[in-house]
């Protein structure tokens, strides 16, 4: 094996976004000339444990348009996982195997693209690398539509999801306003612990529409009586009321407002659904008005047709900066973005130690929510607006988007 130039490896983990493949493309672009082969671990950290890799360098070289298509392909080209590494002080067998794979493939840097749970993996691998004296650089690249990673101003993937949410709320408003009857439409949006994505619904407002008329985030305790009071008051002024709510709504005692029991995933996070349906039932039982609930659910995660150009460009740059930081000797860190101006919108890229990011969640500042807890402030709108700017050009074939072939995820090995 030629060891004069080291190789690198990249993987993706957690939930999909429109921009996560753009970060993968950024790693591939940044690695050119810095590393030999860029290996892709299929299905996150599990790909290393299962020795399931793609030679991304060969794949990109075989098609001149592959890298551009990858940038505009939603979800994860390398697949994902929600695998929680054990504490290596209890069981280091997985870690030992992973770092033997790094040695076997002459890996000099490992890049993990993901959200909170993925940064937990980055932290654990970094700590183990330090313990055994490994020179493999471990760098996290942020991704999450929830926008709840600490230290960084925002996360790639959020801007495109926010654009989808705002566009959908505007379209729901057009759909609803055609009927001159009293009605309430409740839109449930993803956000278990942080309401950033639900807050983005405020961007749907314009000169002819105030919708959504109410916005409820999990950062504030939800009061059913106050909610009914708010709805009744608005129905005195409008025929049609549209309400945006986070899936993680909870009361003052911490009980989730949902239609059924919540379950937990492998990282101990509650799997919620039914906040919108619960509020639909609440209105039906207390107010004589037509009411329906809409659960956006996973739709905003991979809506590449409504991606934000700002979001994709920043995702690519995040991947490129991750490679640059690794070559500088940086490790045990995550790429960050620091906003330097809202108008004109400018950011600076940097990095922060992963120990200050993993297993933490960034909430919407209380000052960006109104006093009653049923709307967001102009400061929130000013923060959000730059992130949804710009449209992207997607190639089409037979009337449908021409995305990257992901048969390696659907075919049995």
Automatic annotation (TrEMBL):
<dbReference type="InterPro" id="IPR022953">
    <property type="entry name" value="ATP_PFK"/>
</dbReference>
<dbReference type="InterPro" id="IPR011404">
    <property type="entry name" value="PPi-PFK"/>
</dbReference>
<keyword id="KW-0418">Kinase</keyword>
<feature type="binding site">
    <location>
        <position position="116"/>
    </location>
    <ligand>
        <name>Mg(2+)</name>
    </ligand>
</feature>
<feature type="domain" description="Phosphofructokinase">
    <location>
        <begin position="8"/>
        <end position="325"/>
    </location>
</feature>
<dbReference type="InterPro" id="IPR000023">
    <property type="entry name" value="Phosphofructokinase_dom"/>
</dbReference>
<feature type="binding site">
    <location>
        <begin position="190"/>
        <end position="192"/>
    </location>
    <ligand>
        <name>substrate</name>
    </ligand>
</feature>
<comment type="pathway">
    <text>Carbohydrate degradation; glycolysis; D-glyceraldehyde 3-phosphate and glycerone phosphate from D-glucose: step 3/4.</text>
</comment>
<comment type="function">
    <text>Catalyzes the phosphorylation of D-fructose 6-phosphate, the first committing step of glycolysis. Uses inorganic phosphate (PPi) as phosphoryl donor instead of ATP like common ATP-dependent phosphofructokinases (ATP-PFKs), which renders the reaction reversible, and can thus function both in glycolysis and gluconeogenesis. Consistently, PPi-PFK can replace the enzymes of both the forward (ATP-PFK) and reverse (fructose-bisphosphatase (FBPase)) reactions.</text>
</comment>
<comment type="similarity">
    <text>Belongs to the phosphofructokinase type A (PFKA) family. PPi-dependent PFK group II subfamily. Clade 'B2' sub-subfamily.</text>
</comment>
<feature type="binding site">
    <location>
        <begin position="144"/>
        <end position="146"/>
    </location>
    <ligand>
        <name>substrate</name>
    </ligand>
</feature>
<protein>
    <recommendedName>
        <fullName>Pyrophosphate--fructose 6-phosphate 1-phosphotransferase</fullName>
        <ecNumber>2.7.1.90</ecNumber>
    </recommendedName>
</protein>
<dbReference type="Pfam" id="PF00365">
    <property type="entry name" value="PFK"/>
</dbReference>
<keyword id="KW-0963">Cytoplasm</keyword>
<feature type="site" description="Important for catalytic activity; stabilizes the transition state when the phosphoryl donor is PPi">
    <location>
        <position position="143"/>
    </location>
</feature>
<feature type="binding site">
    <location>
        <position position="247"/>
    </location>
    <ligand>
        <name>substrate</name>
    </ligand>
</feature>
<keyword id="KW-0324">Glycolysis</keyword>
<comment type="subunit">
    <text>Homodimer.</text>
</comment>
<dbReference type="InterPro" id="IPR050929">
    <property type="entry name" value="PFKA"/>
</dbReference>
<dbReference type="InterPro" id="IPR035966">
    <property type="entry name" value="PKF_sf"/>
</dbReference>
<feature type="site" description="Important for catalytic activity and substrate specificity; stabilizes the transition state when the phosphoryl donor is PPi; prevents ATP from binding by mimicking the alpha-phosphate group of ATP">
    <location>
        <position position="117"/>
    </location>
</feature>
<keyword id="KW-0479">Metal-binding</keyword>
<keyword id="KW-0460">Magnesium</keyword>
<feature type="active site" description="Proton acceptor">
    <location>
        <position position="146"/>
    </location>
</feature>
<feature type="binding site">
    <location>
        <position position="15"/>
    </location>
    <ligand>
        <name>diphosphate</name>
    </ligand>
</feature>
<keyword id="KW-0808">Transferase</keyword>
């Amino acid at each position: 094996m030629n060891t004069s130039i080291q190789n690198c490896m990249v993987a993706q983990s957690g939930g999909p976004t429109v921009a996560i493949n753009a970060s993968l493309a950024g790693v591939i672009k940044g690695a050119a000339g810095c590393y030999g082969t860029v290996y892709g671990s299929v299905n996150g950290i599990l790909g290393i444990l299962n020795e399931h890799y793609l030679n991304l360098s060969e794949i990109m070289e075989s098609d001149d348009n592959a890298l551009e298509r990858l940038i505009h392909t939603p979800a994860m080209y390398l697949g994902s996982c929600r695998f929680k590494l054990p504490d290596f002080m209890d069981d280091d067998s997985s870690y030992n195997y992973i770092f033997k794979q790094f040695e076997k493939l002459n890996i000099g840097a490992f890049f993990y693209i993901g959200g909170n749970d993925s940064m937990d993996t980055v932290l654990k691998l970094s700590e183990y690398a330090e313990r055994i004296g490994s020179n493999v650089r471990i760098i996290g690249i942020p991704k999450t539509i929830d926008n709840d990673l600490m230290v960084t101003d925002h996360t790639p993937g959020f801007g495109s999801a926010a654009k989808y949410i705002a566009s959908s709320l505007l379209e729901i408003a057009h759909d609803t306003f055609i009927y001159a009857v009293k009605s309430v439409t409740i839109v449930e949006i993803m956000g278990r612990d942080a309401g950033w994505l639900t807050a983005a619904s405020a961007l749907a407002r314009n000169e002819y529409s105030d919708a959504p008329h109410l916005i409820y985030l999990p950062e504030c305790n939800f009061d059913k009586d106050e909610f009914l009071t708010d709805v009744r008051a608005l129905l005195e002024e409008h025929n049609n009321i549209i309400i945006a709510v986070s899936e993680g709504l909870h009361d003052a005692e911490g009980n989730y407002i949902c239609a059924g029991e919540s379950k937990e995933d492998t990282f101990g996070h509650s799997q919620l659904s039914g906040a919108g349906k619960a509020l639909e039932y609440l209105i039906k039982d207390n107010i004589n008005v037509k009411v329906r609930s809409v659960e956006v659910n996973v739709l905003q995660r991979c809506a590449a047709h409504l991606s934000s150009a700002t979001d994709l460009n920043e995702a690519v740059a995040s991947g490129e900066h991750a490679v640059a930081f690794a070559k500088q000797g940086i490790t045990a860190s995550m790429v960050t973005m620091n906003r330097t101006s809202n108008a004109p919108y400018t950011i600076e890229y940097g990095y922060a130690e992963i120990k200050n990011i993993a297993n933490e969640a960034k909430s919407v500042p209380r000052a960006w929510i109104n006093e009653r807890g049923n709307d967001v402030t102009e400061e929130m709108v000013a923060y959000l607006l730059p992130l949804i700017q710009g449209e992207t050009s997607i190639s089409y074939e037979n009337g449908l988007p021409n995305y990257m072939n992901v048969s390696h995820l659907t075919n049995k090995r």
